[in-house]
Amino acid sequence: MTNSFFAKYGAIFRISFKQAWNNKANLSGLLFFLFILLFIYNRLWVVIGIQDNVSGYNAIYIWYLLLAEMIILSSPRMERILFNDIREGNMAYYINKPISFFLMRYTEGLGNMTVSFLIMGGFGTLVTLGLTGQPPFAWHHFPIIILMCYISSAINLLFYTGVGLCSLWLDSIRSLGMVVERLAFIFGGAIFPLSIYPQWFVNIAKWTPFYSIYYLTIKLVYDFSWYNLFEAVLLNTLWVSAIVGFVIFTYRKLIKKVDIYGG
Fold first, then answer.
1. Of 67, 61, 75, which is closest to residue 214 (Cα–Cα)?
2. What is the mean pLDDT of residues 173-188?
3. Of 174, 160, 121, whose CA–CA distance to 143 is shortest?
4. Could you tell me the pTM of the whole model?
């Protein structure tokens, strides 16, 4: 049964991976946007760094920005995909099938996300090296940092999947998705590290999932330590448990609604 489970969802992952890999137009647009973003912020931080006599900050912030964008931009808009599935009744088709609608959609998103993450990671690393030179981390730590960012991307995808399941109570998901996205930028330090904000603001951010999904993971690029790594893993594990609990609760409510009302 276990082999059948992995074979089934592994096949979904591979199909989604191949489809995303063959979508050259989307990947090209993603890389172009990433390049423009890195170039603009590099020029910005060079100017600020020179003025403040802290030129080392440039490399730190550009590498920080690269990893943040890898986490954010690699994920498909799962909340909108699930909203359309639920509102158009696509979910009802899978209720009596030997496959979980939620796991199917999440696995598809994971395949799509993996392609974007790998392409952005390879391209972005070369561009950032060209812009900043010596990175602010030891190279033997880099695989661990990238792995943590990939895990955070998967958690981010799971989080937005949970947002999409809120369609059970909402008539539109776009507004909620935009609010959550802005909160992620603010409390996750997705553009600038939270270390530059007042302590009272950081204390508030610590109570949100964005603090560990984004900030604690990304800051490993300039402040790597085994303690920081353990803290990021621990908090991400706790938030994953909370998100999964919400997803299970909501998914059961959706299934019950479909069974009783037919959608």
1. 67
2. 80
3. 121
4. 0.85
